[in-house]
Amino acid sequence: MLKHKGSQVIKTERLILRPFRLDDAYKMHHNWAKDPEVTRYLTWQAHKNINETARILGAWLAAYTADNYYHWAIEHKGEPIGGISLADISDRDGNAKIGYCLGRAYWNKGFMSEALEAVLDFLFSRVSFKKLSAFHDIENPASGRVLEKAGMKQEGILRQEKLRSSGEFADLRLLAILQDEWLDKKKQKR
Ligand SMILES: CC(C)(COP(=O)(O)OP(=O)(O)OC[C@H]1O[C@@H](n2cnc3c(N)ncnc32)[C@H](O)[C@@H]1OP(=O)(O)O)[C@@H](O)C(=O)NCCC(=O)NCCS
Ligand 1 within 6 A of 36 CB? Predict the structure, then answer.
């Protein structure tokens, strides 16, 4: 049984994970949402202008009234640099899918690994999810590496599963980690 808590603030060594705010629109647009390099392997297209970013942000903000809406802004040194969220939550099965994106200027500094680790811990330890999964485009190995570093294991490859924003079909790799595996890993670290 899941004990939903909503997108509570989580602090890590370098980051604050917190709900998005309306005043994030400008930084969100400039740090990642307008960049086609960021959306290259994603299903959504880079935003054309700040109004588009603000409209999408508005829809996210409205969803925070639900305690089973998990969507954090990743804040570093006072500014939002990306986001991490859950989709396809099954209360019955205690599982969900994780998705994320990060501004290009912040890649390869370990930020998404730090954010993912904190989110997995919150969702397994506090909300009691049984299994968390994520897909990544097979041509985006950096994302696969982030998932592997968190202890997620490959479950399979889904051929031509998603239409990329660029118009080509992508093979997706599915990785997952179980609550027991996460809690064991945490125990071993102590
Ligand atoms: C994928 C993404 C989230 C990675 O975030 P990040 O903060 O740069 O990730 P980290 O720094 O924590 O880790 C990246 C890892 O990938 C590795 N990596 C980077 N480029 C790589 C490549 N071309 N091939 C293989 N590994 C690569 C890095 O070396 C690092 O691994 P290491 O710590 O073992 O050296 C970020 O690039 C991003 O948001 N991209 C755009 C949106 C996106 O692709 N979202 C994911 C959709 S599935």
Answer: no
Q: From 13, 40, 45, 143, give the residue whose CB has the most ligand 1 atoms within 8 Å, as the site to mutate.
A: 143
Mean residue pLDDT of the chain comes to 97
Residue nearest to atom 19 of ligand 1 (CA): 142
10-189 has which fold?
Answer: Aminopeptidase (3.40.630)
Residue ID of nearest Cα to ligand 1 atom 33: 110
Ligand 1 binding pocket includes 107 (Cβ within 6 Å): yes
Rounded Cα distance, 143 and 172, in Å: 11
pLDDT digits (tens, 9 = 90+) for 111-169: 999 999 999 999 999 999 999 999 999 999 999 999 999 999 999 999 999 998 888 99
pTM of the model: 0.97
Of 49, 56, 111, 62, the C-alpha closest to 82 is 111
Instruction: Provide the pLDDT for residue 109.
Output: 98
The domain ranges of the chain are: 10-189
The number of the ligand 1 atom at minimal distance from the alpha carbon of 37 is 41
| Token pair 């990785």: residue | 175
